[in-house]
Amino acid sequence: MKKIIFFFLLVFNYFNLSAYNVDVRNYNVQHGLIQSQVFDIVQDNEGFIWFATVGGISRFDGHDFINFTRRQGLPENCTTAALVDRQGNLWFAHQKGKLSKINPQTFEIEAFQVQIDDKPQNNIQIYKLFQDNTGRIWIITVGQGLYFFQNSRFYKLTRDDGLLSSYVYGVIQYNDSTLWAATARGVSTIDCQDSIPQKIDSLSVLILKNPYLFYLEKDASGNVWFSVLDQGLYCLTAQGEVKKITKKDGLLENDVWDIALSPDQTIWLSYNLKGLSRIDLKNSTPKKYKIEHFTPEGELTSGDIFRIFIDREKNVWLGLNGKGVDQLRESLMQHYHFAQKDSPENIVWSIWGKGNDFWFGLENGIAHLNLKTSEKQIIKRIGKKKLISIMQVLPDKQGNWWFVSYGSGIFKYDSKRGKFSELKTPKETDERFAFCLGLDDQGKLWIGFEDYGLLIFNPNTNKFKHLTHKKNKALSDSISVICNAHDGNIWLGTFDAGLIQYDGKEFKKYS
């Protein structure tokens, strides 16, 4: 019974077949978050999640928040970027060119001011932080180029040093000796093996008309993913091939603002106010990408997303503008549905299944679903009979399936032959008023009617036994449910006479 109720809820509440189902939970100021504009998110080595917000920093343990502001030692409250370094320390970027390093065990805070030639860089807008394979901390800014922190000293790289643009949106470690920087004018390459990086070159991506890069990331296979202003998502494969995914392929729009790569070969994308997309690369083909969307009209608290972060447990965290944080966790519940909203095919009256094989009784037909392949089939007619209100689905010991349609009759699916047939009932009954089914321990089919009593069918002899209130005063002519207790008793629920027990010999009424 628990299985039946569980799947009824799944099917009834959703309208489109979805491969990835999420539970979304929002955390905001009322839950303890320091402030609701969340610019960046990281996870420390102990598993705690840290949020960089306009009002300070929050650490989350899954239940409670610990908050850090100037009162606890931060140089500024407004925090725009976060990084976990190779030693497990947390770095945060703040307004006015300031940084803080937090020991996650002791909460000790060390503050830094970005400065060049002893001049504080108070006007820089820090967008991201990055650590290269030598241990340098790179400070990525929008409009002021790149800075890096090495041996307790800050250095600066700008267009004068060969950077394609001072507007930088991301840095990756392309190989052991080279960094790639995504800028508003394309990709700059930096030799990071120099004692002090100064050699900057540019990378030509000929396919780009306007190489304004918003994002750059390298996956575990060596592919480089990047988004380009109003041109969608690109992938430069490890073999040098360039692939492109745009709105025509299923994206919500071509302006992709942030990207997060998951180890399970999925990519998460955010847009300007539109929401979130998930690309399932494992189940995509070069000609057709499997893309799902999550929007503020549906699951999300807001479509205004600053940052996407995927933790080690594969939960997806969204830093929102003014709405706190959304956590997307893969749901334990799998949602299936058979048609568009308000269709009769979404009204599910009955369910039965075993393993990956499930049958659903719908308002206007029978649905069959294979959970392993997600293949589904809807049967709306059997012979000349139009199916309506499939009130019950029941398997027998031979592997056949029985269906009762309130309005059309009783039907059988022969699993071996793969064919449906109709069960014709005696003239003293009307199959249109058949309402429920049951099987006794001898394999006989019990059929409960509205107004026509009880019919017992023996599939071995093809004979019927008809029982009514007139023949047995303990019976009702309107039976709503039949249950075999498998202890020698069969229980009947009725529309007008309460509960009836059959002990193998006689009927007994409880009302």
UniProtKB/TrEMBL annotation:
Keywords: Phosphoprotein, Signal
One protein family per Pfam: Reg_prop
Signal peptide: 1-19
GO molecular function, one term: phosphorelay sensor kinase activity
InterPro entries reported for this sequence: Quinoprotein_ADH-like_sf, Reg_prop, WD40/YVTN_repeat-like_dom_sf
Identification of the protein by name: Hybrid sensor histidine kinase/response regulator
Source organism per UniProt: Caldithrix abyssi
Phylogenetic lineage: Bacteria, Pseudomonadati, Calditrichota, Calditrichia, Calditrichales
